[in-house]
Amino acid sequence: FTEATPYNPSSPYSSTKASSDLLVRAWARSFGISATISNCSNNYGPYQHVEKFIPRQITNVLDGVRPKLYGQGLNVRDWIHVDDHNRAVWTIIERGTPGETYLIGADGEVDNRTVVRTILELLGKDPDDYDAVTDRPGHDMRYAIDATRLRTELGWQPRYRDFRSGLAATVDWYRDNEQWWRPQKGATEQAYAAAGETVLGTPGPA
Question: Taking 50 as the threshold, does the pLDDT of residue 46 lie above it?
Answer without folding.
Answer: yes
